[in-house]
Amino acid sequence: MISQVSIQNFGPFTHLNWDTQNHINLLIGTNDTGKTYLLKALYCIVKSLEEYTKRQQSDREPWKEILADKLYWTFQVGPNGLGEIVNKSEGRLRVSAELLEKSYYFAFGKDTTRRILDCSDVKEPVTALNTLFLPPKEVLTALEAIAATREQLHIFGFDDTYQDLITALRLPPQKSNLPQRLNKVLQSLEKVFEGEVVKEGKEFLFRRGRERYSMSQTAEGIKKIGILTTLIKNGNLNKNTILFIDEPETNLHPLAVFELVTMLFELSSIGVQVIIATHSYFVVKQFEMLSRKYNKPVQLSSLIRDGRAISLKSASLQWGMPDNLLVEASIKQYEEEVLLDLGA
């Protein structure tokens, strides 16, 4: 799993070190602090190594070429190429990461278009590696239309996190039985909406008893949970997975968020590494309560902007909720409610 990442001059970041040794890592911050950027940077490293490993040796391109392609389609850079994601006012971009007790790095400057020359020389496949990225928008409703932007038109629109997710969702369910704890997670998720998302032909449907509903007739929350259940059923979400989730609370009722957070916590106990960017105090609070209840560390990291600089501050929720912007916003709302009640 990912244990540490160091970033220099990448997008909004001039210098950032993030220790991600825990199985659950929460990332919070205001809208301009680069949460999604950081998740995508990590995803590109892990996914490109996974793709390098899964390709046949005779067809295997060098990792630096797979990585460059992954960065290009994930960040959807402009006409000047990869150099556009280098911090505008600084020098060369450099990213290093510790993954499964091995170190990987890449670096390039503002004049880089599609080729990365300064990069780890990966020669051996990275075993037991699988990664998924769940973006805020669900993909089940328009899965084939989204896929067509890349597979037929070869144009920007939906970045590689969407395309990779679609590829994973297309796989058929496994015929073998799921491990007991993973099957328990699956049943708990499907119990939230008393039904299941199934694939018939190329289309996904929501089935509740004998009734079937198209994805356009299905609630957003069901579709979001359905993505996870589909990935569990087809084996893409397993104990070796690194799971990135951007804003899991989007389109979910608080009760569904409660169930989702509980299941993500259970997945982490199985061996899944969960890395989440969120704006929700409810999500963070529920993780804090589970961390304290089961005496298991959950890391909360806050991205903080001070002028043009972005720093990161981390703490373990195992010891309670640390001061952070979500808490401050909640306190401010409470104080305003008290003043309102007092007629002030």
Description:
By secondary structure, the protein is of the alpha/beta class. It folds into 2 domains: 2-129 and 240-341, Rossmann fold (3-Layer(aba) Sandwich); 141-238, no CATH class. Helix content is 37%, strand content 25%. The chain is built from 9 helices and 14 strands. The chain has helices at residues 35-54, 63-75, 143-151, 160-169, 180-192, 220-233, 254-270, 281-294, 325-341, and strands at 2-10, 13-19, 24-29, 93-99, 102-108, 118-119, 130-134, 196-200, 203-208, 211-214, 241-246, 273-277, 299-306, 309-316. The strands form 3 sheets. It has a 6-stranded mixed sheet, sandwiched between helices. Helix 5 packs antiparallel against helix 6 (220-233), helix 5 packs antiparallel against helix 7 and helix 7 crosses helix 8 (281-294). The chain is globular, with a radius of gyration of 21 Å. The mean pLDDT is 90.
Summarize the topology.
Blueprint: E1 2-10, E2 13-19, E3 24-29, H1 35-54, H2 63-75, E4 93-99, E5 102-108, E6 118-119, E7 130-134, H3 143-151, H4 160-169, H5 180-192, E8 196-200, E9 203-208, E10 211-214, H6 220-233, E11 241-246, H7 254-270, E12 273-277, H8 281-294, E13 299-306, E14 309-316, H9 325-341
Parallel strand pairs: 3-12, 3-13, 7-11, 11-12
Antiparallel strand pairs: 1-2, 1-4, 4-5, 5-6, 8-9, 9-10, 13-14
Annotation keywords:
344 residues; alpha/beta; Rossmann fold; 5-stranded antiparallel sheet
Assembly state (oligomeric): single chain
What is the CATH architecture descriptor of the largest domain? 3-Layer(aba) Sandwich
Fraction of helical residues: 25-40%
Flag low-confidence runs.
none
- Cα-atom Rg, whole angstroms? 21 Å
